[in-house]
Fold these 3 entries.
Entry 1:
Amino acid sequence: MAFWLCVVSLFWLPVLRTRASSCPASSCPASYGPAGHNEVPLVFGGVYARCLNGCQPRGDQWSALCNPSELANVRTCQPQQTVAVMRAASRVELAANGSASLTPCQLLAYLQHRTLWLIGDSHMRHQYYALRCFLLDLWDHALGECAPSTSPAVNKALWKAADTNHTSLLRQLRPRTDVAKCFHLIKGGRICSVHSVRGEEFAAAPSAPEAPALLRVLQDSLARPEDIFVVNFGSWHFYPLPAPGLPTTSHPVADR
């Protein structure tokens, strides 16, 4: 199973899948073969080996990062993580709505001509990496990643709004905020990662110290009404470990 895909959330994908199921996949630029014996679903790394037509090069840096057989990759799932995720995917509510059987073409149909904004801490950033691999053949590797805007001023404003002066209680340090980045889908649309560790910056009131709010900056500059926002902030940035409901390990979710 491919590395970042071991942490991709199956709990918000059903919303996209429900709407995408009504969209035709016949115009999808890539096609995939059926899963063989003991092969993982496409959403868990099967994309790399099962692409039949319209595949992006498998020899470039982007594909190499998504190769589930490269266990030396820093973010490759360990066997116990793969087992845990597959067990979670078999849960009744996930099996019933078909989240584990989602295909890249189904997701592409719903993302065309809109931006999927993935906003949050490192776990949401891994969601971005996971989707970059899941949609491996549906974006142009030659273009690589890019900034959300062609305007340096807009990109700077976005970074400043996402950055925080608050200390993350995970390590008792102020987080280092990464610059936002996106990849563009072949059929139109894009997926963007905005690294923002704590939620105060996302929807701060105009009079709050964190203003201008990240959401307001996006709405005023880059986001459109048809865009999708997926937002997640880990409780371990707000509470000292052990955070409520979490074990006492240093990386509680990654270790489970």
Note: The first strand starts at residue 31 and ends at 32.
Entry 2:
Amino acid sequence: MVRITEELVRRRCEHNDGQIGSLEELSLHQMDIDRIENLDRWCPHLKILYLQANLISKLENLNRLKSLTYLNIAMNNLTRIENLSECESLSKLDLTLNFVWKLSDVERLEDNYNLRELFLTGNPCATYDCYRQFVIAKLHHLNVLDGKPIERSERIVAFQNHKEVLKTVTDRETDEEEVRKRKEKNTPAERISSIDDDDSFEFWTEKTEHTPESRLKFHRSLQRIKDVQSGDDNHKGLEAKVGVERRLTGKDGRRLNINEARSKL
């Protein structure tokens, strides 16, 4: 995993002459980061923060970013919405393709009065009955949900049906929590499969639930494959076990242009 270090932040802010204290926009996407840290101390004036496609499992250490207007943390391992209430300037929040299952967590955004756009597509909570009505009723200040503008008529219906919708959501969350508890009790801790295990083929072919754990497991196994293909000394001799096949010619005998200088002719 990658830590958010001062050196990393400076490398990512070349457009600001490496000055992090006055930085207003920062992109740390697709970097295998698993924890948000230090940004509130080093970059207090951040307005735009891109953290999508990492392995972050918790929203934390962002409350002191009073100027933050846009947070993109899509495609991570988040299961809850939390610790954003003091980001008073936040106007756009993208949580697409995470694992937020408790729809009532949107109530934690009620104090973010400047929030106008929210994206929850691809989260378990977005499959709840009356999902859209519930969010609209709870977040009066919201203008756009999942890229779709909120119509005045939608808002009226959401307020009128709020009691019934609230009961539906509460019942669904209660059922969901019981299911999750049973799964945790009956399922042993997952073993992170190594690429040099004899069952690496089974790992890539087995059907599994899409969970934060499975996403992390997939990432680690994929990283090992990349190490093998890049010639990492720690993984020499493992190519056959991950199904890496080097072909220099096609089925018709035509030579292929594989653009790999290390291939032996």
Note: The first helix runs from residue 6 to 11.
Entry 3:
Amino acid sequence: MAIGTVDRKVFVIDLRKLGPSIFQTSLTDLIKSKDTVKLMFDCRLTADVLLHVYGVKLDGVLDIQLLEVSQRSTINKAWFVYKLRGTIAKYLDDDESVQVVHQVGRRIYAAKMRNNNFWDRCPENSILSKNHLEYCVIRTIKLFELYNHFKRGDFFNLEDILSASSRYADFVRSYQTLPDARFYINQLVPDNVMVFYPKDVSKEYGKCKGCWKDKTVKFLSPDDGKKLKGYCKECSCVITHQQERDYSRGF
């Protein structure tokens, strides 16, 4: 876990060594505080792990991934989100950071595919490697730079993005039983997260057959002519475009 401050100091906490006892400190108060805003990038799985593994409910999040989406002028379709590497590449002039995030991200994904933990590759009783530390620093410091970039945008509204970030944090951790992974952790923003307007009563609402969330339901007519009813627009997009783009991947 990495925690950064506005004066560009980064504190890396090795949960492998410290274990759950670290959450018996003031760190828990910081994580749970609604008044202390925490910049994060795609907070869904972090919020889920903090709650269901360590018993700490994350609050006060401002998710940079959602902030980027909120700055777009066209948001009338399924919102595809960038990973951190893509966001840095698009908005910050920092090729070196992009390469570090890309290279380490690929190693993390490769280790996951082999059912290994990338963070366990450091020898026992040793500090994190240079690659580990550099990755943690970039994923922390660059969030402040991205926030400073986006807050100058025409569509910036702090209260709206904090509210959306809270719903984003709840999206995975609210499950009692998880559905198919491609429907709850992908590169599409759920339509009940970016809600800055009253509920449209003219639309059909119900439990989506993919992500199991109470969302706007649409009819889906794939090229094979078979009609599938009951999928939200994000899950529909996952189904129809799975072969074109793997929405469950990305770095």
Note: DSSP finds ten helices and ten strands in the chain.
